[in-house]
Amino acid sequence: MCGIIGILSDEPVALRLVEALRRLEYRGYDSAGVATLEAGGVTRVRAPGKLINLDDKVRAARLESGVGVGHTRWATHGEANEINAHPHASGRVAIVHNGIIENFRDLRLALEARGRRFDTQTDSETIAHLIDEGLTEGLTPRDALLRAVRQLKGAYALAVIVEGEEDLMMGARQGSPLVIGVGRGEMFLGSDALAVGPFTSQVIYLEEGDACVLHRGSRSIFNTAGEEVQRPVTQIDAIAAAVDKGNYRHFMLKEIHEQPDSASRTIAAYVDAIEETVGLPDRPGGGAIDLAKVDRVQIVACGTAYYAGLAAAYWFERIARVPATADIASEFRYRSPVLSPTTLCLFVSQSGETADTRAALDLCRSQGLTTAAVVNVPTSSIAREVDAVFPTLAGTEIGVASTKAFTAQLCALLSVAIALGRHRGAVSRDRERAFARSMMERPRLLSETLKLEAETADIAIDLSRARDVLYLGRGVFYPMALEGALKLKEISYIHAEGYASGELKHGPIALVDDATPVIMVAPADELLDKSLSNLEEVATRRGKVILISTADGVTSAGPSPARTLVVPDCDPLLAPILAVVPLQLLAYAVAVEKGADVDQPRNLAKSVTVE
Ligand code: M6R
Fold first, then answer.
1. Domain encompassing residue 558
2. Residues 238 and 274 in one domain
């Protein structure tokens, strides 16, 4: 949830820490801070709110040290103010932490009973005290760290510096990711590879329970038992360049416009354009599962990724004729799911770090089930833990509101459903060929759909005055209605709900009046007539319907909708990939109209690494 960076160098590190935090701000932006060792003593500079507040303070502070840690926070325990901002310090120690320490109350009471005074309301400060306590008892920094982490219950990724130890930085992880970046005479710690990417291409992914002790020219890694272990060094791509808005006003708008490209890249991983076949990617880790053994698909994900999974459940049943269910990860784990050994457990995640999804994956792995993930970050924890990776090639997504990752997830999931259907004999060779062709048309049709931008901006003027908005969809468009509602609420703060169109009459229709816009997603398919009946039910009650449909659908709807947005005609099974675009554009335009912070909406973070 929070972003962590640590740098050990011969050069001053403060401004580089801030630069790295800029790339991590997507993980949280309630406050930010750095700590360095100035003249041997811990110096902290912290600021509430966005990184820009910290930037000014760090420049003014003229920090000289070659060792320091930085943090950008998504608050869990304690108000989002300067006091609770990381780094936290106690005695000789400063730490930054990502995760949640579940037993912090007990630890804090015990530490207070031993005379320690706490300055903050956070769980994280406990860790600084535990390490400092070890040092005051005469332990080495390494032993003080190892003893401290053994007392922690919950999730943590830590970076630690110690007063008087100019050539030392330490780290530890459990439940939250942490990477070491190995530079030339420099060492880095980061909450993901993106944090250290601009400084070095050599990274080491620490494993669960690992701790590390870094010096400028050497490193040691210890497992949970305190034994020194070796972890492989991985070469990563130059990923720093992705953090650039180009000519766009917001990352979200840029990412919406990148969808023809991101879909094209993703589709190319599954569809052979020459043979017109659809298969699983045959790169390492891509297709390491035996489709012949799959007779059920269990999809698990959160938020937008869950809605992609919900659409995929329709596809797996319709196309591959295999039973499929989609679950919200935070519920799945605790409902004691009954899963057969022939179930493919499929996790969908942009970041590959979402704690709820990872916990569900752990559960399935502990039962020895076959696991696969549709994931956008190939180096993420989820990607590294599943049996097979079905990649989305959306590129780095910075906007907190997921857009291009969602359509890439739809492309990947649809491909997996077709590949599985082909394998099970539910998809004929001719149907596969037709699917391949339709898939290859997606990028062009996405470009066409993006031309709706001006119309959505116009509709957004009225929409931004609404207090509540309803979204309706049937069949595979129902998850799109849910996604449209989520997009609107997360970035414009307008209350929005998605419903299955047929469910409206069972209660939600009571909400319909002339002040509550209803957005119906209904491209022409075999359910169009039923959707249009629902549209009439709304219009009769003075509800203003904005209909998103194909030209046929709009003609059939006649004069009843207040506004229409026409998406290109295509195979209705593939239409969700297009139909979601006007929903993204609408949410974006409403947020802009309301002057909201589009890329960093309040209370949210891009990557939710706490349960
Ligand atoms: O990284 P993930 O795909 O696992 O993230 C899951 C959700 O947190 C994410 O989709 C969230 O709902 C987005 N803010 C939606 O725009």
1. 450-594
2. no
Active site residue 50: no
pLDDT digits (tens, 9 = 90+) for 269-299: 899 988 899 999 865 445 578 888 899 999 9
pLDDT value at 241 more than 60: no
Verify that 175 and 63 share a domain, yes or no.
yes
Assess contact for 35 and 88: CB atoms under 8 A.
no
* Nearest atom, ligand 1, residue 382 CA: 4
Residue 137 has pLDDT above 90, yes or no: yes
Pocket test for ligand 1, best of 251, 302, 403, 407 (most atoms within 8 A of CB): 302
26 shares its domain with 91: yes
CA dihedral 497, 499, 503, 507 (to 10 degrees): 0
Closest residue (by CA) to atom 4 of ligand 1? 349
Cα(26) to ligand 1 centroid in Å equals: 12
SS (H, E, C) 218-282: EEEEECCCCCEECCCCEECCCCHHHCCCCCCCCHHHHHHHCHHHHHHHHHHHHEECCCCEECCCC
Ligand 1: lining residues by beta carbon, under 6 Å: 302-305, 349-351, 354, 357, 400-402, 490, 607-608
Per-residue pLDDT tens digits for 255-270: 999 998 889 889 988 9
Last residue of a domain, which of 229, 246, 263? 246
Q: What confidence score (pLDDT) does residue 565 get?
A: 98
Report the nearest-CA residue for atom 10 of ligand 1.
Answer: 304
- Residue 376 sits in the same domain as residue 485: no
Q: Residue 41: name the closest of 116, 93, 117, 119 by CA.
A: 93
Q: Residue 312 sits in a domain of what CATH number?
A: 3.40.50.10490
DSSP 3-state assignment of 506? helix
Q: 329 or 273: whose pLDDT is higher? A: 329
What pLDDT is recorded for position 285? 45
Q: Answer yes or no: is 579 within a domain.
A: yes
**Would you call 342 helix, strand, or coil by DSSP?**
coil
Mean pLDDT in residue range 173-177 = 83
Residue 115 tokens read as 């005379």
As for how many domains the chain has, the answer is 3
Q: What is the mean pLDDT of the chain?
A: 92
Give 436-462 pLDDT, tens digit per residue.
Answer: 999 988 888 998 999 999 999 999 999
Give the span between the Cα atoms of 471 and 452, in whole angstroms.
Answer: 18
Categorize the per-residue pLDDT at 240 as very low, low, confident or very high, splitting at 50, 70 and 90.
very low
The DSSP symbol for 542 reads: T
Within-domain flag for 432: yes
CA of 608 to the centre of ligand 1 (A): 8
Q: Using the atom order of ligand 1, give the atom closest to the CA of residue 604.
A: 14
Q: Which of 191, 348, 354 has most ligand 1 atoms within 8 Å of CB, for mutation? A: 354
Would you call 89 exposed, middle or buried from its count of C-beta atoms within 10 A (0-12, 13-18, 19+)? buried
Kindly report, residue by residue over 353-392, the tens digit of the pLDDT: 999 999 999 999 999 999 999 999 988 999 999 999 999 9
Q: Is the pLDDT of residue 316 over 80?
A: yes
Whether omega for the bond prior to residue 87 falls within 30 degrees of 0, making it cis, is yes
Pocket test for ligand 1, best of 598, 608, 609 (most atoms within 8 A of CB): 608
In the residue annotation, 345 being an active-site residue is answered as no
Determine, yes or no, domain membership for 259: yes
Q: Are residues 190 and 64 in the same domain?
A: yes
Question: Domain check: are 405 and 373 in the same one?
Answer: yes
Residue ID of nearest Cα to ligand 1 atom 7: 303
Q: Within this chain, do residues 67 and 98 fall inside the same structural domain, yes or no?
A: yes
The mean pLDDT value for 415-438 works out to 95
- Predicted pLDDT of residue 588: 98
Domain end position, chosen among 443, 467, 485: 443
